[in-house]
C-alpha cells in the first residue's frame, strides 16, 4: 500500500484506505493543539501531500518535531478527506519513519523558500527539490514521450545515430575532439603537426553536432525516420539560448519537399503543445502564475492557429522598413540575429514564423539549391521569446549539384558514403532539427536554457 502522492492527491485511492508514502519533507508546521502538519513531496506531482501527525506518536518529541525541509521520510496512516483548504486529501499519520536527516538545516543550500535561478544553477544537484525544477522535469519527460508517441503513431522509425563521428554536419567548426591520444605525448608527423591518424578511428573523430547525415541514410531506405539524442557544440557563446550539450529531435522524410518539412514541423509542435496542456495542467498553471503570465494562453493560441510562412527575402525587407534600430545590420545576404528573429516572431507576427529560402552562402552544404541559384530550400522556425527553435531544409539530392557545393566549401572524400546516397536511388528528401531545450523554454516561459536541462554544460559551467 505504498503510493505516489500524485495518485493519492488525484483521489485514485478511496478515503479510509491505509496508505504509505515515501518522499522529502517540504515544510513542517506545529499547532498548539499538539499536532504537526508535514508536507511531503516525492516528485510525482506539483503539490505536496500533507500528513497530520498527532503528538501521541512515540517519536513525536524526539524526531517529528525536528523534521525540516529536505529530510526523507516514510509515512503511514489513513487517507482522509482534508478539512483544510487547498487539498482534497491528507494522511492521518500513524507512523513516521525518518530515513535521512538534513545534517545542518541552517546551511541546507535550498532551505529558503525563494532562490534565484542563477543561484540554483550553482546547486544543480539539489535544485530538483524545488517547485520550479520539479515542474520543468515533469514537463521535459512529458515532451520527450510526446515526441516519441507522435512519430510512432505516424510510422516513423527511431534511429539511434552515433555520438562519435568524423563529419562536421553543420560545417561551423564547433567540434569537440574525441581522442585516445596521450595529450602529454602527441604523435607528430614529419612537419611537426599532430598526427591524428594515430587516433582511435585512425582518423580525427569528434562528438556529433547533429545526427542528420546519418539519419538521411536511414531515410533513404525506411522513408520516415527521426533521431532524438544529445548533440554537442563547442561554441563559446554565453547566451541564454546556447548550450554546449543539448538534445535535438531530427526527423527526416523521403519523397518530400520543403513545404512537407514545414507541415511536419507545425503538426509536431502543435501535438507537443496540446499534450503538455492536457497532461501537465498543474505544472503549466505554476509557470503561468510564477514565470510567464502567457505560458498557457500562448500555447493554446499557437496550438490552434496556422503558423505564418515567409520568405527570407520578404523578412529582410520587413526588417529594413520596420523603423526599429537593431544592434546588428540587416541586409540581404546576412544571417538574421536573435533580435531580428524575435522582432519577427514577437512584434511583427505574434506567433511562430517559418522563414524559408535563405541565401546559400549562410547555410550548410547539404541544403538544396533553388532555381534562382542564390537561395537554398532552408527553413527556420522562429518562436516568440526564443527566436530560432527549429532549423531544417530540403536536402540536395542531385549528385552533380551536391558535388559542386561540396567542392565550394572544401569538402572531399570523407563524405563518400553520403554521396552514395545520391548515387543509389536518390529521392527528394528533407527534415529539420528541433532543439529540445529551446522547446522546453518556449513551453514553460523559462528564460535561460541552462534551466531547461538537468545539468547544463556551457563554457563557464563546471561539470559535475
Ligand atoms: O539549425 P541547426 O544547427 O540545424 C541542424 O543541426 C540540422 N542538421 C538539423 C536538421 O536539419 N536535421 O540546429 C537545429 C536546432 C536549432 O534550431 C536550435 O533549436 C537547436 O538545434 N540548437 C541549439 N540548442 C541549444 N544550444 C545550442 N548551442 C544550439 N544550437 C542549435
Ligand atoms: Mg540553425
Automatic annotation (TrEMBL):
Keywords: Aminoacyl-tRNA synthetase, ATP-binding, Cytoplasm, Ligase, Nucleotide-binding, Protein biosynthesis
Segments crossing the lipid bilayer: none
InterPro entries associated with the record: Aa-tRNA-synt_II, aa-tRNA-synth_II, aa-tRNA-synth_II/BPL/LPL, Asn-tRNA-ligase, Asp/Asn-tRNA-synth_IIb, NA-bd_OB-fold, NA-bd_OB_tRNA
EC number: 6.1.1.22
GO molecular function, one term: ATP binding
Aminoacyl-transfer RNA synthetases class-II family profile domain boundaries: 138-454
Summary of subunit composition and partner proteins: Homodimer.
Protein name per UniProt: Asparagine--tRNA ligase
Amino acid at each position: 500500500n505504498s503510493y505516489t502522492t500524485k495518485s493519492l492527491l488525484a483521489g485514485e485511492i478511496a478515503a479510509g484506505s491505509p496508505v504509505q508514502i515515501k518522499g522529502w519533507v517540504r515544510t513542517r508546521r506545529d499547532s498548539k493543539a499538539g499536532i504537526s502538519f508535514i508536507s511531503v513531496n516525492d516528485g510525482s506531482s506539483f503539490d505536496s501531500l500533507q500528513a497530520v501527525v498527532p503528538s501521541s506518536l512515540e517519536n513525536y518529541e524526539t524526531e517529528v518535531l525536528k523534521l525540516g525541509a529536505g529530510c526523507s521520510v516514510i509515512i503511514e496512516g489513513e487517507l482522509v478527506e482534508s478539512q483544510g483548504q487547498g487539498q482534497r486529501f491528507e494522511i492521518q499519520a500513524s507512523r513516521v519513519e525518518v530515513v535521512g536527516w538534513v545534517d545542518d538545516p541552517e546551511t541546507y543550500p535550498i532551505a529558503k523558500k525563494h532562490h534565484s535561478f542563477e543561484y540554483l544553477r550553482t546547486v544543480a544537484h539539489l535544485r530538483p527539490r524545488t517547485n520550479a525544477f520539479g515542474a520543468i522535469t515533469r514537463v521535459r519527460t512529458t515532451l520527450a514521450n510526446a515526441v516519441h508517441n507522435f512519430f510512432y503513431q505516424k510510422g516513423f522509425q527511431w534511429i539511434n545515430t552515433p555520438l562519435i563521428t568524423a563529419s562536421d554536419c553543420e560545417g561551423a567548426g564547433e567540434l569537440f575532439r574525441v581522442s585516445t591520444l596521450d595529450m602529454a605525448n602527441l604523435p607528430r608527423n614529419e612537419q611537426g603537426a599532430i598526427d591524428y591518424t594515430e587516433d582511435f578511428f585512425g582518423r580525427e573523430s569528434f562528438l556529433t553536432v547533429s545526427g542528420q547525415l546519418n539519419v538521411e541514410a536511414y531515410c533513404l531506405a525506411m522513408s520516415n525516420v527521426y533521431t532524438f539524442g544529445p548533440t554537442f557544440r563547442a561554441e563559446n557563446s554565453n547566451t541564454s539560448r546556447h548550450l554546449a550539450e543539448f538534445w535535438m529531435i531530427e526527423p527526416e522524410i523521403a519523397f518530400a519537399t520543403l513545404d512537407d518539412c514545414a507541415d511536419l514541423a507545425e503538426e509536431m509542435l502543435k501535438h507537443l503543445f496540446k499534450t503538455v496542456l492536457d497532461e501537465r495542467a498543474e505544472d503549466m498553471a505554476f509557470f503561468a502564475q510564477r514565470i510567464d503570465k502567457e505560458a498557457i494562453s500562448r500555447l493554446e493560441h499557437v496550438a490552434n492557429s496556422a503558423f505564418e510562412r515567409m520568405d527570407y527575402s520578404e523578412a529582410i525587407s520587413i526588417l529594413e522598413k520596420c523603423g526599429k534600430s537593431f544592434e546588428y545590420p540587416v541586409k540581404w545576404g546576412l544571417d538574421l540575429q536573435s533580435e531580428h528573429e524575435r522582432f519577427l516572431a514577437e512584434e511583427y507576427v505574434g506567433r511562430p514564423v517559418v522563414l524559408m529560402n535563405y541565401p546559400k552562402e549562410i547555410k550548410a552544404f547539404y541544403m538544396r539549391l533553388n532555381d534562382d541559384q542564390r537561395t537554398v530550400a532552408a527553413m527556420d522556425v522562429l518562436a516568440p521569446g526564443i527566436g530560432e527553435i527549429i532549423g531544417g531544409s530540403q536536402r540536395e539530392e542531385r549528385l552533380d549539384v551536391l558535388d559542386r557545393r561540396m567542392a565550394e566549401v572544401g569538402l572531399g572524400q570523407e563524405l563518400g558514403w553520403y554521396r552514395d546516397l545520391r548515387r543509389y536511388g536518390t529521392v527528394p528528401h528533407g527534415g529539420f532539427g528541433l532543439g529540445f531545450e529551446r522547446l522546453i523554454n518556449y513551453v514553460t516561459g523559462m528564460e535561460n536554457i541552462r534551466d531547461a536541462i538537468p545539468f547544463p554544460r556551457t563554457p563557464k559551467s563546471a561539470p559535475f
